[in-house]
């Protein structure tokens, strides 16, 4: 059960990576609010859309897209706006935390990592501004991570992008606040998506991470839904330029 936000009903919501992992939970959460959800991802999401329609009686619009291709991303956003009206909630969720050794990174890998984890976020924000301005405002939620706050090793290109997302979020919040466009970030801890379980989770690594958390339970994609709904809804109308940490109490901000 999630909190109910009446102002989200009928809103045009666009989510990157909205058919799997955290993104799938977000799509479901917005659909349950009665929002009109469009999402992009590279892999086929037809079965997920079928399931969402069965659950909510509200089918999301799936648009196949590689977010690293900015022309494709903008085209998908335009199609979403044509179908659902001007996008007034943008959630930049898609990312790739592929592990790598700094000494083995070449320019191609660096450019790929920044294209997915930072560049796509910027241009999605840029592309949605005009429609939000015309609609009288909107809310952008950018997913970052606590990985850069912890100074984690093993994926420096990813943590660099995460840190950049926060700088971008603050600057855009300042620039577009006069248009009633709010821009916030959400910084999850280690959320145990199926991808994380398949690639990185071991009993030893999970035990060590839970030892760092104040709250001694594993975070799931569902734990990200209410924080994002809150940032999207008018309940948080006084918040912009902020990074909301949802990590079970690993890092301490302020």
UniProtKB/TrEMBL annotation:
GO molecular function: 2-dehydro-3-deoxy-D-gluconate 5-dehydrogenase activity
Ranges of residues in domain Ketoreductase: 11-190
Keywords per UniProt: Oxidoreductase
Recorded superkingdom: Bacteria
Gene3D superfamilies, alphabetized: NAD(P)-binding Rossmann-like Domain
Record keyword Coiled coil present: no
The enzyme's E.C. designation: 1.1.1.127
Record family assignment: Belongs to the short-chain dehydrogenases/reductases (SDR) family.
Protein name per Swiss-Prot or TrEMBL: 2-dehydro-3-deoxy-D-gluconate 5-dehydrogenase
